């Protein structure tokens, strides 16, 4: 626990201080090397995601063209 006030059911009470021998710092941890896993993905899922991405790209291009057209109209 951290020293300070903690709201209890009966009201505010001081939380106990940690003993002086308790280390309050987080120890350094070793970095674990990254590992890669091959996970099988159904081809249909890949195709549907590709179609979704293509549709999104087309929509972005339409919005950019519309934005450019509106900017020219305002000039």
UniProtKB/TrEMBL annotation:
This is Uncharacterized protein. It comes from the Eukaryota. It comes from Eucalyptus globulus (Tasmanian blue gum).
């Amino acid at each position: 626990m951290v020293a300070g006030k903690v709201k209890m059911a009966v009201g505010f009470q001081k939380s106990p201080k940690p003993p002086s021998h308790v280390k309050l710092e987080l120890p350094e941890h070793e970095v674990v090397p990254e590992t890669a896993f091959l996970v099988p993905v159904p081809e249909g899922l890949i195709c549907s995601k590709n179609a979704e991405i293509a549709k999104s790209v087309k929509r972005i291009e339409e919005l950019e063209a519309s934005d450019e057209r509106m900017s020219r109209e305002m000039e």
